[in-house]
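Our preliminary data section would be incomplete without showing what the modeling component actually yields. Below, a chain of 259 amino acids is followed by its predicted structure, encoded as tokens that our downstream tools consume directly.
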Amino acid sequence: MAPERTPNARGKPQVYEVGAQRLSETELEDGIICFENDPIMTLEVGPGKSLFHVHKSLICHVSPFFDAAFNGAFKENCGSMQLAEDDPSIFEILVQWLYKRKLVTSPAARKNIMVYYSALVDVYLLADKYGMVPLKDFVVKCFFDRVKKHRGAGMNCGVPDTEIVSHAYANTVAGSCLRRFLVTCWAWGMDLDKYGLAITPDDILKPPEFAADLAIALALRARRGIEADAFKDLSPFLESTNSKPNVDDGRVKFEADRA
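Predicted structure:
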């Protein structure tokens, strides 16, 4: 549900109506939100039914799933919902993002880059489950920024390992922006000498679709040379841009899908 604008008066910030919630333009952008008469929904997460209390308008605004559940024809009237299959530790990161617009991960994830990447994949998959495109794009941006930072220290630094790739591929479909990003990391973020040494065929073939995607990406890299940089632009990896891969001007580019 897209926010609706209300008239701006006396130089005050533009205000948006999201359900019963009134949000200024700055608040929407920065995630600094003030609520007005907005109901609190209770979400029981995981087998142990960990409780999360979330403002209805906030979660419905970013998730078609929850919007339909709480506002649709078959809406939940009791103000609560059970999400028994979800991991409370990952759902907590989702809720933190709803209110803070940042990902608050565990101390272990802050110390170990692969634990951090694993958490990012889990958050992405949860966001995908509930149709939260803004969160999916935010996760990819965090991935992009961290990989780019580590690449500055040398090739092979910060490339997600095969376990992370396998987990992502097992829970996403062809064309996923997360798949596209992970393949790009392996094709352009890793020294080619590492293939056949630290990386074996069995590693790459764990998810067969990944092996096929990687072969295509490596062919594109070989065509444009080692100086080609697929990390100049974030937009190809964002679902909101609805894009697909192409090669042009000596580097990898992506262009919008056409009907």
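Residues 65 and 130 are 5 Å apart (CA to CA). The longest helix spans residues 133-151. Preliminary results of this kind motivate Aim 1 of the renewal.
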